[in-house]
Amino acid sequence: MSCHLYNYIGPSMHPTLRVGDGLIVLPYEARPIKKGDMVVFTSPQDGKQVVHRVVKVNENGIQTRGDNNRLPDPYFLQSTDIIGQVIEVQRGDRRLKKFNGLIGEKLAEYHRSRNRLWRFVYRILSIPYQKIAPLRLPLIKADHLKVATFHKNGGEQQALMLGRRVIGWRRSQEGAWMIRAPYRYFIRENVEF
User: Fold this and answer.
1) Taking the complete model, does pTM exceed 0.85, yes or no?
2) What is the DSSP secondary structure assignment for residue 2, as one 8-state letter?
3) What is d(CA 182, CA 2) in angstroms, rounded to the nearest whole number?
4) Which of 25, 152, 162, 180 sits CB 3.0–4.6 Å from 84 for a disulfide?
């Protein structure tokens, strides 16, 4: 069996995967697809390749969900839509084994619980954030930030990075940055990255 290599972009599998991770994908062939497997598939909505985790396998097909997504994908896949299973991740000069099956399912549940907790904390903190938002305190300086550029489907996407953390996105160099809370309150809009 030969493996394929894919480059991961996007937030849907964070923190399991990070922007720029190389995904080592093994085709299933005769192996069964199991709940908890991290798979690369062709989306029936737009034909793009997506990496999500299997959350349901039944007579309707295979349903997936990103570890960072609140809801499962709104469609069921067939086994022919699945390109393969993510077995390892190349992150810099390290190769990381990714867990599938029951362990992968439990890790995804842990990440979702943690994300729910953070969304709750953000809601509580939104009142003080709204007070300081107009000030745009320059607590994060431009020289602490990096921009990673990715080419996908003939277009360009950029990720704004603070250390290893993705704090913002934009679709092209001319587009506006979409910076995540709470970081957007501490970066001046007119700073060049």
Assistant:
1) no
2) -
3) 43
4) 25
In the 8-state DSSP scheme, what is residue 92?
A: T
- Residue ranges and CATH numbers for the domains of the chain are 4-102 (2.10.109.10), 136-185 (no CATH)
- Looking from the CA of 44 toward its CB, the CA atoms found within 13 Å total 14
Dump pLDDT digits (tens) for 39-70.
999 999 888 999 999 999 999 999 999 998 98
Q: Is the model more confident about 136 or about 183?
A: 183
Can you say whether residue 127 is alpha, beta or left, with left for phi > 0 and alpha for psi between -120 and 50 degrees?
alpha
Q: Is 74 helix (H, G, I), strand (E, B) or coil?
A: coil
Nearest CA to 150 out of 172, 181, 128 is that of 172
Name the residue type at position 53.
Answer: R
| Residue 130 tokens, joined | 């709204």
